[in-house]
Amino acid sequence: MSGGEARDAKKLVRSPSGLRMVPEHRSARSPFGLDEPPWVPDKECPRCMQCDTKFDFITRKHHCRRCGKCFCDKCCSKKVPLPRMCFVDPVRQCAECALISQKETEFYDKQLKVLMNGKVMMLFFPGATFFVTLGTSDKSELMVCRLSNNQRYLILDGDSHYEIEIVQISTVQILTEGFTPGGGNTRAIGMVVQYRLPGSPELTQVKFTAGEDLSCNKKLSATWLAAMHKVSGARAGEQEK
Protein backbone atom coordinates (compact mmCIF):
# COMPACT_ATOMS: atom_id res chain seq x y z
CA MET A 1 0.00 0.00 0.00
CA SER A 2 1.35 3.41 -0.94
CA GLY A 3 1.66 6.36 1.41
CA GLY A 4 -1.17 8.05 -0.47
CA GLU A 5 -3.52 5.17 0.39
CA ALA A 6 -2.38 4.34 3.93
CA ARG A 7 -5.33 6.03 5.63
CA ASP A 8 -8.32 4.93 3.60
CA ALA A 9 -10.51 3.62 6.45
CA LYS A 10 -14.08 4.91 6.32
CA LYS A 11 -16.92 5.25 8.80
CA LEU A 12 -20.70 5.51 8.51
CA VAL A 13 -22.11 8.74 9.94
CA ARG A 14 -25.62 10.15 10.12
CA SER A 15 -26.21 13.80 9.30
CA PRO A 16 -29.52 15.72 9.03
CA SER A 17 -29.29 15.07 5.29
CA GLY A 18 -28.84 11.28 5.44
CA LEU A 19 -26.29 8.50 5.91
CA ARG A 20 -22.78 9.20 4.66
CA MET A 21 -19.72 6.96 4.29
CA VAL A 22 -16.82 9.30 5.00
CA PRO A 23 -13.05 8.85 5.55
CA GLU A 24 -12.07 8.45 9.21
CA HIS A 25 -9.28 10.96 8.70
CA ARG A 26 -10.07 14.34 7.16
CA SER A 27 -6.64 14.30 5.49
CA ALA A 28 -7.84 11.31 3.41
CA ARG A 29 -10.82 13.14 1.90
CA SER A 30 -11.12 13.13 -1.87
CA PRO A 31 -10.13 16.44 -3.50
CA PHE A 32 -13.26 16.03 -5.63
CA GLY A 33 -15.56 15.96 -2.61
CA LEU A 34 -17.98 18.64 -1.42
CA ASP A 35 -18.86 19.72 2.11
CA GLU A 36 -22.48 19.58 3.17
CA PRO A 37 -23.97 23.08 2.86
CA PRO A 38 -25.47 24.88 5.87
CA TRP A 39 -29.27 24.72 5.71
CA VAL A 40 -31.22 27.95 5.45
CA PRO A 41 -32.93 28.18 8.88
CA ASP A 42 -36.65 27.34 8.82
CA LYS A 43 -37.56 30.71 10.33
CA GLU A 44 -35.84 32.51 7.43
CA CYS A 45 -37.82 30.79 4.68
CA PRO A 46 -41.59 31.23 5.00
CA ARG A 47 -41.94 30.64 1.26
CA CYS A 48 -40.48 28.29 -1.35
CA MET A 49 -37.25 29.80 -2.67
CA GLN A 50 -38.17 28.67 -6.19
CA CYS A 51 -41.92 29.19 -6.78
CA ASP A 52 -42.70 31.45 -3.79
CA THR A 53 -45.44 29.17 -2.49
CA LYS A 54 -46.20 29.89 1.15
CA PHE A 55 -45.46 27.08 3.59
CA ASP A 56 -48.25 25.95 5.87
CA PHE A 57 -49.63 22.85 7.53
CA ILE A 58 -50.23 21.21 4.15
CA THR A 59 -47.36 22.61 2.10
CA ARG A 60 -44.24 21.39 3.87
CA LYS A 61 -40.74 22.74 3.39
CA HIS A 62 -37.79 20.64 2.27
CA HIS A 63 -34.08 21.44 2.17
CA CYS A 64 -31.99 20.61 -0.89
CA ARG A 65 -29.05 18.48 0.29
CA ARG A 66 -26.71 20.06 -2.24
CA CYS A 67 -27.39 23.81 -1.85
CA GLY A 68 -29.16 23.90 1.52
CA LYS A 69 -31.97 26.16 0.29
CA CYS A 70 -35.63 25.70 1.21
CA PHE A 71 -38.28 24.49 -1.26
CA CYS A 72 -41.76 23.04 -1.45
CA ASP A 73 -42.20 19.37 -2.35
CA LYS A 74 -42.98 20.19 -5.99
CA CYS A 75 -39.71 22.11 -6.42
CA CYS A 76 -37.58 19.65 -4.44
CA SER A 77 -39.01 16.22 -5.15
CA LYS A 78 -36.15 14.43 -6.91
CA LYS A 79 -33.84 12.07 -5.05
CA VAL A 80 -30.54 11.85 -6.88
CA PRO A 81 -27.18 10.22 -5.97
CA LEU A 82 -24.65 12.69 -4.58
CA PRO A 83 -21.31 10.85 -4.30
CA ARG A 84 -19.35 14.08 -3.87
CA MET A 85 -20.85 14.37 -0.38
CA CYS A 86 -20.42 10.64 0.28
CA PHE A 87 -24.13 9.94 0.66
CA VAL A 88 -24.97 6.24 0.77
CA ASP A 89 -28.40 6.64 -0.83
CA PRO A 90 -29.90 9.16 -3.30
CA VAL A 91 -30.90 12.36 -1.51
CA ARG A 92 -33.52 15.06 -2.03
CA GLN A 93 -32.35 17.92 -4.27
CA CYS A 94 -33.92 20.90 -5.99
CA ALA A 95 -34.37 20.71 -9.77
CA GLU A 96 -31.25 22.77 -10.54
CA CYS A 97 -28.98 20.83 -8.18
CA ALA A 98 -30.44 17.49 -9.30
CA LEU A 99 -29.48 18.30 -12.89
CA ILE A 100 -25.92 19.16 -11.85
CA SER A 101 -25.62 15.96 -9.82
CA GLN A 102 -26.97 13.85 -12.68
CA LYS A 103 -24.38 15.35 -15.06
CA GLU A 104 -21.66 14.45 -12.58
CA THR A 105 -22.69 10.80 -12.60
CA GLU A 106 -20.52 10.04 -15.64
CA PHE A 107 -17.63 11.88 -14.04
CA TYR A 108 -17.75 9.71 -10.91
CA ASP A 109 -18.92 6.44 -12.43
CA LYS A 110 -16.59 6.54 -15.38
CA GLN A 111 -13.72 9.01 -15.43
CA LEU A 112 -12.37 8.50 -11.92
CA LYS A 113 -12.74 4.74 -12.23
CA VAL A 114 -10.72 4.80 -15.45
CA LEU A 115 -7.94 6.70 -13.65
CA MET A 116 -7.96 4.32 -10.68
CA ASN A 117 -8.36 1.10 -12.69
CA GLY A 118 -7.90 1.19 -16.43
CA LYS A 119 -10.27 -0.75 -18.68
CA VAL A 120 -10.06 -1.86 -22.31
CA MET A 121 -12.97 -3.93 -23.62
CA MET A 122 -13.74 -6.32 -20.73
CA LEU A 123 -10.19 -6.37 -19.30
CA PHE A 124 -9.12 -4.34 -16.28
CA PHE A 125 -5.59 -3.08 -15.63
CA PRO A 126 -4.12 -1.37 -12.56
CA GLY A 127 -3.61 1.93 -14.35
CA ALA A 128 -2.04 2.84 -17.69
CA THR A 129 1.61 2.52 -18.74
CA PHE A 130 3.68 5.49 -19.93
CA PHE A 131 7.27 6.53 -20.39
CA VAL A 132 7.69 9.17 -17.67
CA THR A 133 10.24 11.98 -17.85
CA LEU A 134 10.88 14.12 -14.79
CA GLY A 135 11.82 17.79 -15.08
CA THR A 136 14.41 18.58 -17.74
CA SER A 137 15.92 15.09 -17.70
CA ASP A 138 16.54 13.42 -21.05
CA LYS A 139 15.91 9.99 -19.55
CA SER A 140 12.51 8.37 -19.21
CA GLU A 141 11.27 5.45 -17.14
CA LEU A 142 8.48 3.02 -17.95
CA MET A 143 5.88 3.43 -15.21
CA VAL A 144 2.31 2.42 -14.41
CA CYS A 145 0.19 5.48 -13.60
CA ARG A 146 -3.08 5.49 -11.68
CA LEU A 147 -5.17 7.53 -9.27
CA SER A 148 -5.02 6.39 -5.64
CA ASN A 149 -8.10 4.77 -4.10
CA ASN A 150 -8.77 7.90 -2.02
CA GLN A 151 -8.37 10.01 -5.21
CA ARG A 152 -5.79 12.26 -3.55
CA TYR A 153 -2.64 11.16 -5.38
CA LEU A 154 -1.45 10.38 -8.88
CA ILE A 155 0.73 7.31 -8.30
CA LEU A 156 3.63 6.43 -10.59
CA ASP A 157 5.15 2.97 -10.18
CA GLY A 158 8.20 1.55 -11.92
CA ASP A 159 11.75 0.99 -10.72
CA SER A 160 11.07 4.28 -8.93
CA HIS A 161 7.93 5.35 -7.08
CA TYR A 162 6.37 8.82 -7.08
CA GLU A 163 3.16 10.28 -5.70
CA ILE A 164 1.81 13.61 -6.95
CA GLU A 165 -0.88 15.20 -4.79
CA ILE A 166 -3.84 16.14 -6.99
CA VAL A 167 -4.46 19.45 -5.19
CA GLN A 168 -0.88 20.50 -5.98
CA ILE A 169 -1.30 20.05 -9.75
CA SER A 170 -1.27 23.42 -11.49
CA THR A 171 -1.75 22.48 -15.17
CA VAL A 172 -2.38 19.42 -17.30
CA GLN A 173 -1.57 19.66 -21.01
CA ILE A 174 -2.63 16.76 -23.23
CA LEU A 175 -0.23 16.00 -26.08
CA THR A 176 -1.81 14.91 -29.36
CA GLU A 177 -0.84 13.92 -32.87
CA GLY A 178 -2.67 13.58 -36.18
CA PHE A 179 -3.94 17.16 -36.56
CA THR A 180 -3.95 18.55 -40.07
CA PRO A 181 -4.62 22.16 -41.22
CA GLY A 182 -7.75 20.94 -43.00
CA GLY A 183 -9.10 19.23 -39.91
CA GLY A 184 -9.15 15.59 -38.95
CA ASN A 185 -8.94 13.30 -35.99
CA THR A 186 -6.29 13.67 -33.32
CA ARG A 187 -5.01 11.05 -30.93
CA ALA A 188 -3.82 11.63 -27.37
CA ILE A 189 -0.25 10.38 -27.03
CA GLY A 190 0.80 11.87 -23.70
CA MET A 191 0.55 14.75 -21.29
CA VAL A 192 2.63 17.27 -19.39
CA VAL A 193 1.76 17.86 -15.73
CA GLN A 194 3.05 20.78 -13.70
CA TYR A 195 2.72 20.65 -9.92
CA ARG A 196 4.18 22.10 -6.73
CA LEU A 197 6.03 20.09 -4.15
CA PRO A 198 4.91 20.82 -0.56
CA GLY A 199 6.75 23.87 0.75
CA SER A 200 8.18 24.82 -2.64
CA PRO A 201 7.00 27.81 -4.73
CA GLU A 202 8.58 26.35 -7.87
CA LEU A 203 6.68 24.20 -10.35
CA THR A 204 7.90 20.68 -11.11
CA GLN A 205 7.17 19.17 -14.53
CA VAL A 206 6.47 15.56 -15.47
CA LYS A 207 5.96 14.35 -19.02
CA PHE A 208 4.00 11.17 -19.83
CA THR A 209 4.37 9.54 -23.25
CA ALA A 210 2.57 6.43 -24.50
CA GLY A 211 5.09 4.01 -25.98
CA GLU A 212 4.57 3.13 -29.64
CA ASP A 213 5.90 -0.38 -29.01
CA LEU A 214 3.20 -1.01 -26.40
CA SER A 215 0.46 -1.69 -28.94
CA CYS A 216 -1.80 -3.47 -26.41
CA ASN A 217 -1.60 -0.39 -24.20
CA LYS A 218 -2.46 2.28 -26.79
CA LYS A 219 -6.22 2.27 -26.36
CA LEU A 220 -6.00 2.15 -22.57
CA SER A 221 -3.47 4.99 -22.55
CA ALA A 222 -5.69 7.16 -24.78
CA THR A 223 -8.74 6.42 -22.58
CA TRP A 224 -6.75 7.18 -19.43
CA LEU A 225 -5.44 10.47 -20.87
CA ALA A 226 -8.94 11.54 -21.91
CA ALA A 227 -10.19 10.86 -18.38
CA MET A 228 -7.30 12.82 -16.88
CA HIS A 229 -8.10 15.75 -19.17
CA LYS A 230 -11.78 15.78 -18.13
CA VAL A 231 -10.96 15.44 -14.44
CA SER A 232 -8.38 18.24 -14.47
CA GLY A 233 -10.74 20.45 -16.49
CA ALA A 234 -13.56 19.92 -14.01
CA ARG A 235 -11.32 20.81 -11.07
CA ALA A 236 -9.96 23.91 -12.83
CA GLY A 237 -13.49 25.08 -13.61
CA GLU A 238 -14.56 24.74 -9.99
CA GLN A 239 -11.49 26.52 -8.66
CA GLU A 240 -12.33 29.51 -10.85
CA LYS A 241 -15.85 29.83 -9.34
From TrEMBL:
This is ZFY21 protein. GO terms for molecular function: zinc ion binding. InterPro entries: FYVE-type_Zinc_Finger, ZFYVE21_C, ZFYVE21_C_sf, Znf_FYVE, Znf_FYVE-rel, Znf_FYVE_PHD, Znf_RING/FYVE/PHD. Pfam families: FYVE, ZFYVE21_C. SMART domains: FYVE. The keyword rRNA-binding does not apply. It comes from the Eukaryota. The gene is Zfyve21. It comes from Nothoprocta pentlandii. Residues 42-97 form the FYVE-type domain.
